[in-house]
From TrEMBL:
Top-level lineage group: Eukaryota
Organism of origin: Paramuricea clavata (Red gorgonian)
The protein's name in its UniProt record: Uncharacterized protein
Amino acid sequence: MAGAVAGGLFNAFAFAGAGYLFKMFDKNGYAEEAHRHNIAMENLTAEREKYLEEVTDRRNRLAQLKAELGEANRNINATNKALELIRRINELTRTAMLRKPQLSNHYKPSSEMEEYMAIFGLIMGGVVGGAAYLIL
């Protein structure tokens, strides 16, 4: 969990730093890159909302079916109903979960932006490495 948070922060910081370098050297290209990035973030947000709705609906359906299964098990005459509910639960649990949406599905930085991100990453790696060396 901490690695995912640290990775997300590093990516955001690298994108911001690369964006700054991009803006310094190519004023018009940065506006286009920022626009592409914003559209990709909107698409990602919409896809995440849809994903969360589907996950919530699936959990609610499973909870409802399990509650009905418990009620059916209390009554011997409801054995057929219980078996049908078990079949439906198995159908739901055997279907594959949707893939979690990711920014990389919607946005690919331009080659120039990737170069600036790499340069910024090398600079920051040197700074962090140098700081670590001085501290140790």
